[in-house]
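Re: the multi-chain job from yesterday

Posting the exact lines I submitted so nobody has to dig through the queue logs.
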Amino acid sequence: MKKFIFVVLSVFILSTLEVIAQCNSEAMSNQCIPKLATGFNFLKSYRVEKGAKEFVEYSYVFTKGTQYMINICAAGQATDGIVVSLYDSNRNKVASSKVNGQFISAIAYPCNTTGIYYIQYTFDGSTGYCGGSALGFKR
Amino acid sequence: MSMRIAIIGLILVVLSACGGEKKSDEQKFLENLDSAKTEGPTISQEVIGDILQQIPSPLEISMILKESGKKYNVTYLNSADNRAKYNTNYKKALNLGIYGTDLGYTNIYEQNQDGVKYMEAIKDMADGLNIGQFFDIETVGRLATNSKNLDSLLLITTQNFNSINHYLQTQNRANLSVLLLTGGWLEALHVTCEVAKSNPGNKELEETIGEQKIILENIMLLLSFYKESDQNMASLLNDMDGLKKVFDKVNITYTYKESTFEIVDGVMVIKDNSSSTIQITKEDIVSIKEVVDSIRGKIIS
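And the result, structure tokens for all chains:
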């Protein structure tokens, strides 16, 4: 009986710990806002959390003549394998934050073409599959 | 004895977990009842949320207007005194968006006295829609008193509006979010048309007006989801269709070229080699302004 109670309690405690360790992508996206470079005005914060799909995607209409910045935040200083890629309205890839095996934490995009852009986050060797991101603009 | 306590503790834990689940089911049932009372949109909330998030912030247009070198002009805006006229949720949501754009315009031009009036109008509209808790008027008001706080002021205001939109969508009230963003966009277009009228030949302003064709398509799509369930939104969609007919004359062409990049101080800076051209005539701008003024006139009256 003692063993049974020990097992049940262990399962309960472990499941509780799992809940505590759950991804707080909202907090991470908020952490990203002050990390936008000087001169950029905040527009949106995005939660980056692996769900049923292999990627997380948002979209936004970018305007010609405006410069946009998208950054990535994860637990710790690095991006934890989170990669942001930008696609134009015809799904042509404009940029990816992984280059030559290096993960870049922010991309700046001076837009030449007004239209819908797709901001896609993927996980490449990520351990937490959890992060946040912020979008800002400047003229 | 300690074993008994442990067993009782376990039973309580299991019961409380079951109780939590039951409450959640009840909540879902009540939510279903509530949503059944008012006919919803013809498409999922997720799709609506995806389209809503694409709509650009009116703040971007206000920045372009200031850049054009034109002076601040409060007569372009909807008077904050008009707020007493808006008695329905439909009018409140649209004018909340309009006042939001007007506040952004006053903030960017650092016109704090006018800004305070718009903050009060926004608070009124938001309270009327039971979303006043998301507009932190005290903080915004304090920041507005010093022009050194402009960045913080713009940040807090944007965050407040983002929170309002997020909350409305989670509460199955995305229709109000659609109206809020429609009002905000229409006001930004109205002010741009006014500035372009007093600044003839400004190519950037003319192109900015022409580019709104892209946003209009999204707004019409959003409104179309509610045309069967909401007469006001159906009527607004009809008005927007009139605007679309004028925008149909605007021609936007794209030329795609692969982008290049360089890393500067740890940031990947993209060089966009694509380009677009916007063909819009002076007559198109006059026609767009006329239709926008007509739609806006109905909303703010």
